[in-house]
Amino acid sequence: METSIPYLAQDPIFNVEKPFDTDVPVDHIPGARASNHRNDERDLKVYPITDPDEWDLDRHGFCFIRAKTGLNAEDALTRKKEVQKDYWYEIEAILHERFPQYSRIESYDCTVRKRDPDFPANIRLYTKVEQPARRPHSDCSPRGAHMNLQRAFPGQERFWEGKDFDILNVWRPLRGPSNDWPLAVCDWRTIDPSVDVRINDAIRRDRVDENAILHFSANHRWYFMKDQSVEDLIVFRNADSFGKRAQGFHCSVFNPESNGQPRESVEVRCVAFR
Questions:
Q1: Is the dihedral angle over the CA atoms 88, 93, 95, 100 positive or is it negative?
Q2: Which of 57, 43, 47, 44 is nearest to 182 (CA)?
Q3: What is the C-alpha to C-alpha distance for residues 222 and 161, in angstroms, rounded to an integer?
Q4: Which of 11, 139, 96 is nearest to 274 (CA)?
Q5: Pairwise CA distance, residues 14 & 122, whole Å
Q6: Which among 187, 163, 21, 41 has a CA at the least distance from the CA of 104?
Q7: InterPro entries, from UniProt (predicted)?
Q8: How distant is the alpha carbon of residue 89 from its chain centre?
Q9: Cα separation of 195 and 105, whole Å?
Q10: What is the pLDDT of residue 119?
Q11: 9: which DSSP letter?
Q12: pTM of the model
């Protein structure tokens, strides 16, 4: 698939200023900036997954699981708070079966997205349903992983401080087969973290997170699942507590071959202890 990806540009400002972005309006604040990012838009190929079984979480940063789940699109879009715990339990059971090395798995976030028909031509801040994320990123850095847990499980630091854990995402479309703005994942073996990865402050309405963003490299190899169904789960590692394992850098990409309905998707973020 021929498409483009808006990498983070290598900018001299990062010698004196940490990268940051926000989803909070700042136009009313004199001198405020929503971000210090510049785009480095690159035309490239994203390759279709031909054999889902060949991808390994610890080598590539992502893998695929074929599994049935009970969450339907309408409930996810209209009753997320009421149904997310049941979905969390389903995802945790699927992960325990696939990854016996984890002694405990706790879900703590559920994000539902529905692409607006004018995305991304008319970029604006969406408040009700999140939009696809175009910038290639990992949802948290190793430091950001601890920040996630402090927010999700307040007052329980003794249960994770010094522990070996991963922050995993489980992503799937809500309706399928889906080809609209698919999730593309980058093979970790093609990333040089010392050069390609930049730590970023993600400023939200009620908090500051820390994630990681990619600079362009011609070595990167990107992949997507064509005709992804609701039973095709993409599992990727955002970070681990010690910063030593493969990460699943990802982004949504325009698919020029898609003529289906705007993509709807759901993703669960969880902590998995070893």
A1: positive
A2: 47
A3: 34
A4: 96
A5: 28
A6: 163
A7: AsaB-like
A8: 20
A9: 32
A10: 87
A11: P
A12: 0.94
List C-alpha distances in Å: 59 to 45, 163, 193, 218. 21, 22, 14, 20
d(CA 12, CA 19): 11
Sheet holding 20-22, edge to edge: 2-8, 39-48, 222-224, 183-186, 250-252, 137-138, 208-214, 197-203, 20-22
Alpha helices in 79-215 (DSSP H): 80-98, 142-152, 193-196
- Sketch out the chain's domains with CATH numbers: 48-197+220-273 (2.60.120)
- CA 199 to CA 21: how far, in whole Å? 11
Instruction: Give Cβ neighbours of residue 123 (< 8 Å, ≥ 6 apart).
Output: none
244 with 166: CB under 8 angstroms? no
* Half-sphere exposure (Cβ direction) of 170: Cα atoms closer than 13 Å: 30
Angle at 202 between CA 197 and CA 206, to 5 degrees: 160
The length of the chain in residues reads 274
Q: Which residues pair with 224 in a beta bridge?
A: 48
Alpha helices in 189-272 (DSSP H): 193-196
Residue 108 and residue 10: Cα distance in Å, rounded?
A: 33
Instruction: Select from 248, 250, 249 the least CA-distant residue to 181.
Output: 250
Query: Is 235:48 a contact under the CB 8 Å cutoff?
Result: no
Amino acid symbol at 82: E
Task: Give strand pairing partners of 62.
Answer: 236
Residue type, 208: V
